[in-house]
Amino acid sequence: MSMGLTIIITGALVAASCGFLGCFLILRRMAMLGDAISHAVLPGIVIAFLMSGSRDSLPMLLGAAALGLLCTFFIQSLRSQGVQSDAAISVTFTALFAIGVILVSLYTRQVDLDLDCVLYGEIAYVPWDTLYLFGNNIGPKAIWGVGTAFILSFLVVGLFFKEFKIVSFDPQMAAALGIPVLLIHYLLMGLVSITTVASFESVGAILVVAMLTVPSATAYLLTDRLETMLAISVGVGILSSLFGYWLSLIFNASIAGSMTVAAGIFFILAFLFSPLHGVVTRWLIRRKMRAATDQP
Amino acid sequence: MQTSNRPVSVRDLSVAYHRKPVLRDVQFDAPEGKLIGIVGPNGAGKSTLIKAIMNLLPLTGGEVQIYGKPYKEQRALVGYVPQRESVDWDFPTSALDVVLMGRYGKLGWFRKPKAADREYAMDCLDKVGMADFAKRQISQLSGGQQQRVFLARSLAQDARIYFMDEPFVGVDAATEKAIIRILNELKTQKKTVLVVHHDLQTVREYFDWLLMLNMRQIAFGPTSEVFTTDNLQKTYGGRLTVLPDLPEPVAETR
Ligand SMILES: Nc1ncnc2c1ncn2[C@@H]1O[C@H](COP(=O)(O)OP(=O)(O)OP(=O)(O)O)[C@@H](O)[C@H]1O
Ligand SMILES: [Mg+2]
């Protein structure tokens, strides 16, 4: 596989799986939860690293996923005790992130953990970090990691689609029907944690947040159907990866950054020209109607 | 009296939010096949009562039974129309999709709604006069139309007991009459309907039985017996300046 293609596929998988789950986050007005999880996993990564003593992905993945779930659990507990939702989110994730920062500053000299790499990722190195099975090179590790996260999200959301849908739209009705609302909530948060963590190596913690919100926000502007919204969100994610890679070649800039900028450009286009809600579209329609009524 | 014949039986119910009691001493047995009104001022605990009965809130005391068993075992028998403001109407979904959600309880895990469910949901939309709006995104419906979609969703639950939280808010007079016709149709099928209602002028016309509530139960019984000036004063306190026109027999009672 060529280097460019590997990078594009990795980026596309990250953007697609984040975009997929991001739809439910923004519909439940929890977009900031992605942000929270992506920060809160830092102590998990550091602890896993210190305990295993290796930069192997699996322990880090588990450590991070555990902290991600712990973070949502803290937020949920604070919220159910009457702390305001946004306050609960920000108190929890800043505290956990700070613990991570302290751990890094305490141990970073003894061990070789590159914080920049955790926070900003480096998708350009992805093609070289390959995985071996029985001595055979089976391709870049990142593709396996992110691909697994994507397939997992796809399967879980596919199996529980109607539950995810009704819990997002009307949690009280869902509870009245006997759907375990809290379980579905943690299932979504678990998937967000896993996807976030799997995406670290490529785009880094901070840019995951963008991928969790921007493609799904774009899709929201383009359709009135949840199923279509999920599809568009994945599509926009893949296009962002392609277009972003191309941008990074032209400007010789950070690949992950360019992919996020590309996603932002798609969002602005949808914001202005969406056939349903676009600002410019609505203006054009109004002008046409005014012209029609002005004519005798 | 056999409790298991009682659609809803509430014993000594009390509910508190963060230790602040909002409901206490609620105790009634709803008779089967009746339209039962729930009236009381804002903040009286009407929505809270419905949520507590449907196990959506923890009870601080008391017991609720649906046909003689706890709610958890009887979910399939209960339909629900929440207050319209309880959901985000900008959600990307159509009127038909929302009504289809009423079928989810019957489907169980891993099952997708089938053509038969769609037809059923479509019939329910038709009953509330919304068939033409099935494909409409729900934010593009008027408030009264959204209310009718919620009503259709509860019909799609195909229940024996219905709890409706202010189904008449924001609907025009013709729609209100249409909804009442549907409720009366449910009644002829031996179904029990409990409705939170605010318009005291129509209470007597619409409801067979009445629950009067203001943080505690003021009265419960046939409308003709409990809808009295005395009880209204107790329920609404000094806040009710204009009493509804009470017909002769009630006005005479003491
Ligand atoms: N989530 C909540 N947390 C704390 N207090 C609440 C909550 N929901 C309701 N309350 C309080 O409980 C009381 C009863 O509220 P409830 O919503 O049941 O009233 P209601 O009779 O349905 O009023 P309305 O006619 O306005 O719908 C009110 O005093 C309200 O302030
Ligand atoms: Mg209410």
TrEMBL record, chain A:
GO biological process: response to zinc ion; transmembrane transport
Domain of life, source organism: Bacteria
Keywords: Cell membrane, Membrane, Transmembrane, Transmembrane helix, Transport
Membrane topology category: Multi-pass membrane protein
Keyword Transmembrane: yes
Localization terms from the record: Cell membrane
Gene3D superfamilies, alphabetized: ABC transporter involved in vitamin B12 uptake, BtuC
Xref: Pfam families: ABC-3 (PF00950)
InterPro entries (alphabetical): ABC_BtuC-like (IPR037294), ABC_TroCD (IPR001626)
Primary localization class, coarse: membrane
UniProt similarity note: Belongs to the ABC-3 integral membrane protein family.
Protein's recorded name: Manganese/zinc/iron transport system permease protein
Gene source species: Melghirimyces algeriensis
TrEMBL record, chain B:
Highest rank taxon of the organism: Bacteria
Cited SUPFAM superfamilies: P-loop containing nucleoside triphosphate hydrolases (SSF52540)
Zinc recorded as keyword: no
Domain ABC transporter stretches: 8-240
Alphabetical UniProt keywords: ATP-binding, Nucleotide-binding, Transport
GO molecular function annotation: ATP binding; ATP hydrolysis activity
Entry's transmembrane regions: none
SMART domains: AAA (SM00382)
Pfam families: ABC_tran
Cited PANTHER family: IRON TRANSPORT SYSTEM ATP-BINDING PROTEIN HI_0361-RELATED, METAL TRANSPORT SYSTEM ATP-BINDING PROTEIN TM_0124-RELATED
Annotated protein name in UniProt: Manganese/zinc/iron transport system ATP-binding protein
Species in which this protein is naturally found: Melghirimyces algeriensis
Record lineage: Bacteria, Bacillati, Bacillota, Bacilli, Bacillales
